[in-house]
Amino acid sequence: MNRYRCHYLLSNSLKLLFGFLLFVFSSFSYSQTIAELHHELTNVTLSKTKSVLEKIVQTDDETNLHLFETMLAGNLYFDTSDHSLLVLEKVDGVEQIKDFYSAEVRAIDRSDAKKIRVNNALRTYLRASIARIQLTAKDDTVRKEAVESLYKKVDKTTFATVVELRSQETNKAVQSAMDLLIDMNDAQFNKNEQQRIAAINRLAKSLEPAVRNMLVTIANQTEVPKVAAAATQALQTIEAKIGFYNKLDTVFFGLSLGSILLLASIGLAITFGVMGVINMAHGEMIMLGAYTTYVVQLLMPNHIDQSIIVAIPLAFTVSALVGIVIERGVIQFLHGRPLETLLATFGISLILQQLVRSIFSPLNRQVNTPSWMSGSVEINPVLFITLNRLYIFFFALIVFAALLVILRKTSLGLNVRAVSQNRNMARALGIKTARVDALTFGLGSGIAGIAGVALSQLTNVGPNLGQSYIIDSFMVVVFGGVGNLFGTLVAAFTLGIANKLFEPMVGAVLSSILVLVFIILFIQKRPKGLFPQKGRAAE
Amino acid sequence: MKLFSSIFNFKRSGEPGAVIVPFVALLFVVTLFAALGNLVFPEGSVLHVSTYSITLLGKYLCYAMLALAVDVVWGYCGILSLGHAAFFALGGYGMGMYLMRQIGDRGVYGNALLPDFMVFLNWESLPWYWFGFDHFGFAMLMALLVPALLAFVFGWLAFRSRVTGVYLSIMTQALTYALMLAFFRNEMGFGGNNGLTDFKDILGFSLQSDTTRVVLLAITSLLLSLLLILSHAIMKSRFGKVIVAVRDSESRARFLGYRTERYKVWLFVYSAVIAAIAGVLYVPQIGIINPGEFTPINSIEIVIWVAIGGRGTLVGAVLGALLVNYAKTRLTAIFPEAWLFALGALFVVVTLFLPKGLFGLAGSIRKKLLPSPAAVKEVKS
Q: Which domain of life is it from (chain B) (predicted)?
C-alpha cells in the first residue's frame, strides 16, 4: 500500500472516529426518530441543514437514499401547512406534487409547497453521502455498480470513502472494481512517477471503456514522457485484447448463424441427401413450425416460459404430418424424377404460403421470447453473449446428435440407409420402401418444424419466413456434400462464420453475395461438395 | 445455307414444327387487328382495342419469348434453369438505363447530367458503367452482351465441371438470388429498391402515345415470330440433334466424340440472349424495371409456363406463357387470394398428370383420333 493511500485512510479513520463520537453523543442526549428529523429538516436554516442531514445519515434509514437523491436534484419540497415532505416531479412537462413516502399525487397548491434549499457545500455533502450509502449497501451487485459508476468521474471525498471501504470489502468482484478505481486515480493524480507508471501497467489488464478513455487522455496530455509512453503501451495491450475479443465475438455470431443454417438445412439433408428428393417446400415446413410456436403462445398466454417446451414436439408433429401427406400425395409418384419433384413441391410451397396468409393474415407475427432465454452473459466489458443465440447453438447440436443417433442406431435409420443405397435390393430383402420413404420425409420435415421454433425466437414469423432460408439451406447441403450429415454440419458453420467475417468488411448484403459466389465457384471445382459420397452408393 | 433451308423445311403435321407457320400467321393477324383496333377505330366502337389491352398483349408476348428461352434449354437439352429471370432483368436494366438517360432534365430534380435517384443520393457524377447509355445502339448492344457474357461465364464454368441436373438448377437459382441482393443495394447505381422508372420517350417517340405502344407491340410480335422460327431451325439442324442427344444421354454423346459442354454453353448463351431481348422489349411497354424481377419465384414461374404448354415444343411453351398469364390477369382481378393457390395447384397437377403439357395432351388425343403418318411409321418399326 502506498503512502498516498495511507494518508487517506488515516484522515478517514479520524473522521469516522469523530462521527462515531458524535453519534454516541447525540444518542445520549436524545434519540430522534426519522420522522422527527424529516420534520426538523423543513424548519432549519440553510446553515444548519448540514447538521440535520448528518443526523439523518446516522439513522441508516431506508428512505435516506431517495431523500438525498431528490434533494440533490432540487426536487425536495415541503407542505407549508403541515411540514410534510413532498417531491416535485415533471411528467410529460407537467409538474406534479407527490407525497415523499407514499409517492401519491397530492392535490395541493403549488404556492403551498416550499423548496428545501441546497447550496454547493450541501451538494458536495449529499453526493458523498449518496455514494457512501450505495457503497455500503448489503447487495454485492449494488456495491459493484456503485463503484463502477465512479469510473467516469470521481471526486475526492467519494474516492476517500472507496479507499476506506476497500479494506473491509469481502466480495472479490467488488474488491477488484475498487482496486481498478484506485489504480485509475493513481494513474491520473499520483505525484510519484514510479507508482503512476505501475498503476498504468496494472490498468493494461482492464477492458473497461472508461479506462481506455482515461489512458488516451494520459497518453496525449501528460507532460511526463515516461508516463505517456507507459500509457501508450498499455493502450496497445488493451487494443490488442479488444481486437481478440472482437474476433471471438464475430466467431460466436458466425457460430450462431451457422447453427440456424444447420437447423434449417439438416432436414433438407435427409430428404435431399438421403432420399434424393428436392423439397422446395422445405422452407414452408420451417414456417409451419414457427407458426405452431405462435399458436401455442396464443393458447397459453400466461405461460410464455413453458410455451417453447410445448411448441417443440408440437411443431415437429405438425410439420412431420404435413410432410408425410406431401410424400404420400405427390412425391411418391415422382420417384427418380428430381426436376419434377422440384416443380411439384414448389407448387406445394406456394399453396402453403397462401394458406398461411389467408389464415393468419400476410402481416408478420411477433413471437415472445421466454424470460429464461432473454438477456445476455457478460464475459468481460467487451464480450457479451446473448442467451437466446447460445441456447439455439446448443439446441442445434442436440438436434444434430439426435438425428445421428436415429440414423445410426434405430431400425428406421438402418432401413433408411438401406433404401438410400439400393432401393431395389432393399425391397427385395423385404423392407417396405414406401413406408420408409414416408417416414424419412416425415422426419426431415419434422426437423424443419423444430428449426421453425428456433427461428421464431430470432425473427418475426411471416408467410415468407421459409423462402428466405430455402436457398441458403440448399447451398449448405450442396456445399457439404449431399447425403453426408457431417458435411452439412461443417458446411453450415463454415458458411455462418464466413458470412460474419466478411460482414464488417463489405456489409451484410455483399457478404452474403460473396458467400454465394464462392459456393458457385466451389461447386465448379468439387461438384459433389466438401465430403462427397464414395463407392457404389454415389450414383 | 443449310440453316436457311431448314428454316423453311417444316415437318409433317403432328410434329411441333408443323404448327409454327399457322401460329406465326395467327400472331400476325392478332397483332394487325389489335393495331387497327387501337389506332383506327374510335372509342366506343365494337372493334376498338384499348391501350391497356395493347400493353397487356405486349407484356404477354414478352413473357412468351421468355418461355421460349427456357424451353430451348430445358425442353431440348434438359438444363432446368431457375435463373432466366436474371437474364430477362439484365436486358431490362440495359433498356431501362437508356430510357433513363432519355429523360434528360425532365426529371423531378431537373438535372440533365444525373438520373433522379443519383441526385437524391447526392452522387457527384455518373458511374463509369453508365457512360454510353445515351446512345440507343450502344445500350442495346450492352443489354444483350452483358446477359450473354454472364451466361457464357456461368455456363462455361458449370458445364465444364459437369454440374448437371438438380445441382445446376440450384446454382442458377443462387446466381439470380445473388443478383437480386446486389440490385436491391442503393450503392449499385441502378436505383436500388425502386429500380428505374418514370420514362418519357424512346428514340424521340413518346412512350405515352398510342402509336409508339402499337409499334412496340408489333416489334415484339415480329421478334417473337423470328426467334420462334430461328429456334425451330436450330433444333432441326445438326447442332440441335446433338443437343437432343446430350439431353437423352450426355455420356454417350461425349463418348461419340462430341464436346458436349461446348454445345451446352452455346445453347445456354443463345437462350440467355432470347431472355434478354424479352427484357429489353418488356421495359418500355411496362414502364418500370426493379430488382423484384430477379426474385427466384419469377424464374420458377417461367418453368411452369413451359411445363404447362409442353416442354420441347417451342410453340407449346409460348402458348403456355400466354395462357397462364391471361389466367393470372383474370384470376388476380376476380379473387386476388386465389392466384397463388391456382398457380401452386398448376405446378402439382401438371407435373403429376401432364408430363408433356397441354401440347403433348393435344398431340396424343389427335394421335388416338387419326393416326398421323409419323405415328403409323412408329407402329411399323
A: Bacteria
Give me the residue from B171, B337, B344 closest to A523, CB to CB.
Answer: B171
- What average pLDDT does range A175-198 have in this prediction? 82
- For chain B, the structural domain boundaries read 20-301
At B25, the amino acid letter reads: A
Nearest CA in chain A to B303: A343
Residues A78 and A148 in one domain: no
Range of the domain at A352: 260-466
Of B178, B337, B346, the CB nearest to A517: B178
Distance (Å, whole) CA B92 – CA B139: 11
pLDDT in tens, A482-510: 778 888 999 999 999 988 888 888 877 88
Of the residues B193, B311, B352, B353, the best mutation for testing chain A's interface (the one with the most A CB atoms within 10 Å of its CB) is: B352
Average pLDDT rounded to a whole number, residues B109-138: 88
A19 found inside a domain: no
Residue A152 lies in a domain: yes
Q: pLDDT category, A202, cuts 50, 70, 90? A: confident
Please state the domain count of chain A: 3
Residues of B within 8 A of A357 (CB-CB) are 337, 340
CB contacts of B344 in chain A (<8 Å) are: 347-351, 354
A294 and A361 both lie in a single domain: yes
Domain boundary among the residues A93, A121, A149 is at: A121
pTM: 0.76
- The verdict on A8 touching B (C-beta cutoff 8 Å) is no
| Residues from B in contact with A at Cβ < 8 Å | 80, 154, 157-158, 160-163, 165-167, 169-171, 173-175, 177-178, 181-182, 184-185, 296-297, 300, 303-304, 307, 337, 340-341, 343-348, 350-352, 355
Question: Is residue A280 domain-shared with residue A368, that is, in the same domain?
Answer: yes
User: Is-contact B360 B310, C-beta < 8 A?
Assistant: yes
DSSP-derived 3-state class of residue B280:
helix
Q: DSSP secondary structure string, B13-81?
A: TTSGGGGHHHHHHHHHHHHHHHHHHHHTSPTTSTT---HHHHHHHHHHHHHHHHHHHHHHHHHHH----
Name, in order, each residue with C-beta under 8 angstroms of A451's C-beta and a sequence gap of 6 or more. A260, A263, A264, A266, A267, A286, A289
Is A253 a member of any domain? no
SS3 percent helix, strand, coil of chain B, rounded to 5, is 75, 0, 25
Of A341, A347, A517, the CB nearest to B344: A347
Prediction ipTM score: 0.82
